[in-house]
Amino acid sequence: MSSNLATKLREGTKKSHTMAENTGFVACFLKGTVEKTSYRTLVSNLYFVYSAMEEEMEKHKHHPIVSKIYFPELNRKESLEKDLTYYYGSNWRNEVAPSAAATEYVDRIREVSNTAPELLVAHSYTRYLGDLSGGQILKKIAQTGMNLTDGQGTAFYEFKTISDEKAFKNTYRQAMNDLPVDEVTADRIVDEANDAFGLNMKMFKELEGSLIRAIGQMLFNSLTRRRNRGATELATAD
């Protein structure tokens, strides 16, 4: 049985994908405006999301549907722990907590796992395919925007056990297309993927306030330096 689920998900989530990319936080990020405080908060939230998702995927690794797209090499929890150590220090576990949006996201993953495990496919697709597709670009943006050296604070984007990301994505998509699901279940998975994009957008929107404040502070500091420099130049001229 072939469900063509990968194709249905790509087509069925186009609008949600575009909306997510157009949130203020993501749009600024893609343009190179990366502020470390809001970024590390995102890393913290993703840690809780991936921890929940990977725990539930592991729980259902023998499920007739989930098992087909269960690839432990995609797991991000350990890499996020490395990044949290970089951003918060060795005591990071006492420093981080999920935001309201991250908590809602985690709760949904747990609910799906308990009531309809096949919908975990949607959450896996939404996060992992995005990580594989744009990871290297986002890594470079983060490194440039926060003046990071290679390997610092960007472990999340590194899939060290996957040698060919393009080939792996093809394998993953084929596994999704071969899932033993009927049309009704496929549609439910697409709906869940759109909901997952919505949950991601809520996390991004939470970060916009701190990002805007940070940008405002940077502009204020820049203007202050210019004024001070101008005053110094005038004093020197006198």
Structural class: mainly alpha
Report the sheet with the most strands, covering strand number, pairing sense and barrel closure: none
Measured by DSSP, the beta-strand proportion falls in under 5%
CATH top level label:
Mainly Alpha
First-to-last CA distance: 85 Å
What CATH architecture label applies?
Up-down Bundle
Overall helicity:
over 70%
Oligomer: single chain
Mean pLDDT: 89
H/E series, N to C?
HHHHHHHHH
Name of the CATH homologous superfamily: Heme oxygenase-like
Structural shape: globular
Number of domains: 1
- From the 3D structure, determine the CATH topology: Heme Oxygenase, Chain A
Number of strands: 0
Radius of gyration: 21 Å
Written account of the structure:
Helices cover 71% and strands 0% of the residues. It has one domain: Heme oxygenase-like (Heme Oxygenase, Chain A), CATH 1.20.910. The N and C termini lie far apart (85 Å). Helix 2 (14-21) packs parallel to helix 9. By secondary structure, it is mainly α. The protein has helices at residues 5-12, 14-21, 24-30, 36-59, 77-88, 100-115, 120-145, 165-177, 183-237. It is globular. The protein has nine helices and no strands.
List keywords for this structure.
about 70% helix; mainly alpha; Heme Oxygenase, Chain A; about 240 residues
